Amino acid sequence: MQDRILKKDKKLLLSFARKASKIGSCLLLDTEALTPVNFEEEKEKFFKSKTYSPQYVYEKKDFKNTSKQISSLIKQAEKFYIPRDLKKYLLEYANNLKALLFVFETIGTKYFANAAEQLIDWDEDEIKNGHKLLPEMIYAEDGLDFQNAPSIKKLFAQTIEKYGIKNYPVVIDSFNGHIIRDEPNKLIVGSKVKRTKNNVKRLIVHEVESHALQRYNLKLLDNQLLNLITFKDEVLYSEGLAVHNEIRTKTITKNALNTYIARLTAVELKNESFRKIFNILKKSIPDENAFITTYRLKRGLSNTQFPGGFTKDAAYLLGYGTVSSFLTSGGRIEDLYLFRVPCLCKLLTKYDLLESQDFKLPKFVSNPKHEPNI
Predict the structure, then answer these.
(1) Is 70 a member of any domain?
(2) pLDDT averaged over consecutive 10-residue blocks of the chain (374 residues)?
(3) H or E stretch including 183?
(4) DSSP of 206-267, one letter per residue?
(5) Is 323 among the domain residues?
(6) What pLDDT is recorded for position 258?
(7) Contact between 78 and 70 (Cβ < 8 Å)
(8) CA–CA gap between residue 158 and residue 199 (Å, rounded)
(9) In the chain, which ranges are continuous DSSP H helix?
(10) Please, which residues have CB within 8 angstroms of residue 340's CB and are 6 or more apart in sequence?
(11) Domain extent for 259
(12) Is residue 333 domain-resident?
């Protein structure tokens, strides 16, 4: 297998990346895809009973021909005459799309838990010991000065404008109104969200100075190869970077850390029922937080008494450990703002598949001209 890539093969690679990115953008496994249509009704039933576990109903999406498109991608990657390590990476990504499609097809069925586990196969020992990766830290005080959704929206928008991030609006909506979430083209503040002033500062670091800047850099370079990251690696490094930045900037609050720990605990208890997980979590966090944390794990299931669930939430603390290890071993935080994952940085720079270019970094990171160092 050759050690360099010919010009004609680079064109084929970019064509492959465009097709793969388009499929990946359709298979966006986010809050909207996993939110049941009867969320509020089931939440009300849950709190009226001491034994009830929610029974969720989901809106189905149509993925006609997607399976054929993914199979075609896999065949195309198998025929590439490119270096072995790059070819292996492309095949892993294409097969990850297949796993993502299986998750979408099984939402609300008895097969969902198995599909989700194939997509995100966390190591059980890492789950059990994830909280031990945390350093001693200084917490920002939570306080009692709550900001409502419009106030939070304004502060987010001001920060986005300050960084010169274009075409990334902040909007308020009532769909899952209790959370703040980022999407490829916007930042969404739930209409019912209330956060303390210091917690909003933390969220600016997490949502804007971590996630939004990463997304902006992707658009700035407009290289579809940068989108080819498996779901597990994407959440591991993106959420890990965001938590790392919270700790680095000393904006993390004790309540925020408790939430991250509770999310990891919920994942560790994934095979228990919704009710049992909730009962365990409410011993250490407020009932409302315990419900939301348990719901985040059990979303995707229809009958939440059943084992398993969507274990993405382990990424916050496991990702913190992964990012910290990467940086301690000589990795550069700048690379995570451009390539997002180290293995992709190594491949794209090794085979000269990305032009050197300036990009945006948060104010608490120096902004030299990019020279990958992996």
Answers:
(1) no
(2) 76 94 94 94 97 96 93 94 94 97 96 97 92 86 87 97 94 90 92 93 96 93 94 97 96 94 97 98 95 97 97 97 96 94 94 84 69 40
(3) strand 180-183
(4) IIIIIIIHHHHHHHHHT-GGGG---HHHHHHHHHHHHHHHHHHTT--BHHHHHHHHHHHHHH
(5) yes
(6) 94
(7) no
(8) 16
(9) 7-26, 31-34, 39-48, 66-79, 84-106, 112-119, 124-129, 149-162, 197-203, 213-221, 231-248, 254-268, 274-281, 287-298, 315-328, 333-338, 342-350
(10) 214, 226, 229, 234, 237, 238
(11) 28-62+107-350
(12) yes
Q: How many domains does the chain have?
A: 1
Check if the beta carbon of residue 285 is closer than 8 Å to that of residue 258: yes
What pLDDT shows up at residue 200?
95
| Token pair belonging to 302 | 């229809």
3-state secondary structure of 188: strand
Indicate the angle between helix axes 231-248 and 84-106, nearest 10 degrees. 90
What pLDDT score was predicted for residue 143?
Answer: 76
Return the pLDDT at 3.
67
Q: Quick check: is 359 in a domain? A: no
Phi-psi bin for 169: left (phi > 0), alpha (psi -120 to 50), beta? Answer: beta
Could you give the angle at the alpha carbon of 116 between the alpha carbons of 212 and 173, nearest 5°? 40
Cβ contacts of 197 within 8 Å, gap of 6 or more: 143, 145, 147
Give the sign of the dihedral formed by CA 162, CA 163, CA 167, CA 171.
negative
pLDDT at position 366: 62
- Determine the Cα angle at 19 with ends 15 and 24, to 5°: 140
* 357, 221 contact by CB (below 8 A): yes
- pTM value > 0.90: yes
For residue 366, what are its two tokens?
């120096």
Name residue, tokens 């399976």: 67
- Furthest CA-CA distance within the chain: 65
In whole angstroms, give the CA distance from residue 68 to residue 71. Answer: 5
Distances (CA, A) of 30 to 172, 200, 204, 249, 352: 17, 22, 20, 27, 32
Q: Residues, the chain, total?
A: 374
Sheet with 180-183: list strands edge to edge.
Answer: 170-173, 186-190, 180-183
One-letter amino acid of 285: I
